Amino acid sequence: VSIRRGPVLRPFASGGRRTIVAILVTFALFSTLSVVLSIRATARSRHQASALEIAARQRTLAERYVAEVLLTRAGERADPAATARLLAESAAALLDGGTAPAVEGDDDETRLPAQTGKEARRQLVQEHLLVGDLIATGRALLADRAIAGVRLAAHERITATDPVMRLRVLALLTGSVSLNAARTIAAHTERNVNDLIVLEIVLGTLGLVTSFLLAFALITTTRRQTAHFQSLVTHSTDLVLVFGAGGCRYASQSVAAMVGAPENEILGPGFEDFVHPDDLPHLEAARAHGEPREIVLRVRNGRGEWRHLEAHVTDLRTDRRIRGIVLNARDITERVGLEEQLTKQAFQDALTGLANRALFRDRLDQSLARSQRSGESLAVLLVDLDQFKQVNDTLGHDAGDRMLEQVAARFASASRSGDTLARLGGDEFAMLVEGAGELEAGRVAERLLECLEEPVRIADHDFMVAGSIGIAVHTAGPAESKELLRYADLAMYAAKEAGRSTYRVYHHDMARDMGDLLGLDHELRLGLQRGEFSLHYQPTISLEGGEIIGVEALLRWKSPTRGQVPPVQFIPVAETSGLIIQLGEFVLREACAQTAQWRRDGLLPERFVTWVNVSGKQLSAGGVSARIQRILETEGLPADSLGIEVTETAIVIEGVAGDRARRDLEELHEAGVKIAIDDFGTGFSSLAQLRRFPVDAIKVDRSFVHGLQHDSKDAAIATNIVSLAHALDLVAVAEGIETDAQLASMRLLGCDHAQGFLFAHPVPARELGELLADRRRAA
Amino acid sequence: VAHRPALNSLIARLVPVVVLAPAAFAVAGCGLGSTSGTGSGGRVIHVVERDFKITAPAHVRAGHVTVQVHNKGPDAHELIIVRLKHGNRLAVRSDGMSVDEDAVEAATVASLEPGRPGSTRTVRLTLAPGRYEVFCNMSGHFMGGMHAQMVAE
Q1: Distance CA A758, CA A743 (A)
Q2: Nearest by CB to A194, which of B10, B97, B145?
Q3: At residue A759, does pLDDT exceed 80?
Q4: pTM check: above 0.80
Q5: Which of A181, A546, A583, A753 keeps 20 to 30 A from A139, CA to CA?
């Protein structure tokens, strides 16, 4: 389907105004022309009327001249010479313009224009000649000269020989020609008037036709434009409502389509029937005051579901064209649902349905606050499953997840309603028992351990599960949840040391007894000095092209006494002891140096990013931005070649440390460093916080990727995360892709990048260098 | 006389010149004060009026004729044709200045109202053999020289 190039859509105002001005100008132009013509014609008519009068007067004067000549000859007093002068001057004025003299007792001097009509002119010339002949003959008669000797100029062929007779014939001819000239002038004037009428009719018609054409063009354009905007408004998915005194005065088609009711049920007071009763006050306020500027309404749709509408309120009551309150609303139900789900996710462990770490911490904080007021004791139990890693390694993550679910269900059945049971992550569970002392907590621990005595059945195999429980009891006074959890953690290590399936209660001297734990810390410090740490790199793959577009740097520790120690074991210790700062710095420096080396070797494709994990501890300690920028500078690595991964929990840190961390992240982002949220979906508190952050990518936690095929809830969350990422214009990265099926699913969801064993295991720098070189050669 | 209703004048203005052009050519092609043959209207007698003179053929054939009167102006002129009976003299009004049209009414074969200068008027008539006076009887015109005689044979 080809889209025709149309004219630019313009509101009516611009073109319409021009057309109206054009119509007015046309009218003004034609009117002015008509008036000017009329004035000119009137002036000419007045002149012609004067000429007519004078011409007609000539006849009387000619007759008077004859009478006066005869009187003079009879010896009477008369002044034919004066009349002759009047006749001659009038004839001259009629022909070539000038002043026609006044006639005593009759009329005044009259100014005449030169006669222009051809026919009238010829007649006036003839009249002028006749006047001359008349006067010459009159003079000859008065002087008793021979009349036959008078030369006649006007081609008269008078056969009469009697001089008086000749004089009278000449007077008659003069009168006749004068009258005829007067008639010609009158006819000429009439023709002029008729011409003017014709001209004005033509002009008027032209003006009218032009104006009609312009008006027609205006109406057509207006109609088309109105139609354009009408269809834009009516086909918009946004809902437009206008409220006036009598209720709803306008509802766009989208409103009718949503509520599934005809317009007449929506207009007037009817719209309120579709609004949730709790939201009616918002609507009322908006209608009455035009405020608040933004309201959220629940409106029942055609299927009886409540849809959330976010409406912008615009007060156009003073706008004469609207006279109402305008609501521009959007259906945000999906967004609201997603936010609710994410909020729930933020406090719930997706796998087991138990509380998560964030909620547990929150409950613990509240509980501690209550305890401080009431003086009641409380206990925190930390449970770590002993065989879990083995199950995970031999049967895979799915089996591990099934085990966690079953264990969670057993713990839930063993707990009382007032207790808070949570999964803090991995195979670590926690329980908060309010009002419990050491004895009571021990009994709870025993109950939990009893739960695990029965083997867990997974995929037709029975597995024995054992747990170690650490208990921290708070009795009185102020305490911090973090501290209490650390005590419980120490107690749990003590329990593990003491052998399987047992519990220990924390005592203050326990820290000293925890030689091993302290030893681990010590060993970590030594290891850092001795260079026992190294980095492995796991490639990130573009799901579109399959090319390597980055690596995640992963810390490895090979202890001379313990062998290869997984990060999950030593990172918490490093975080507790603060060694994480130095370890983090080591990782950053090493990863940057290595990346810079690869760059120099020409192994890196464009836009290659090396991702480094930065812990919440590093962030809240401050100065991360400055340190990273210094390292980038030292290694000569462009900022956009480095990405840092932070966990959700790291960016929701409260207080001064949180502000510092956010500032650092913003600074880094501004410098060009990429930022990704790691393990997304496992502990975030609000969508709003994510919006506030300078984030480039979201990593979908492996637990959702693994649950994709079996667990509809996980699948829904994964789908939401990817669509959320895209809605916020972020890159979605899937972690832990192990099977082709997982890859296919993530691709189907539109995930952009992926990481996992399916593509590549984490490998040492040298191997990755070779891999990149191979890829480079293949390309 | 020269007066015409406004509407006529209007229509006359609006009639394209093209329609009148052939008629004008026909006039131009004819000799002055002469006769020439036409189809149905009998012989054509051309009479030319001027200030103050009438030119008409001295001898014309009796019978059906078409008289075409060309006014060459500059004044407007009537045309009256009267058959002369007694002593070839026309009765004159008491002032002696114009022909007594009432007295010669019985002998009048044609009487055309004043025509504008430049106009051509046509009248069809049957001329019995005899002498005819052709003249303009507007005030003073007859005495001013506007008369001619024509003999139909």
Answers
A1: 8
A2: B10
A3: yes
A4: no
A5: A181
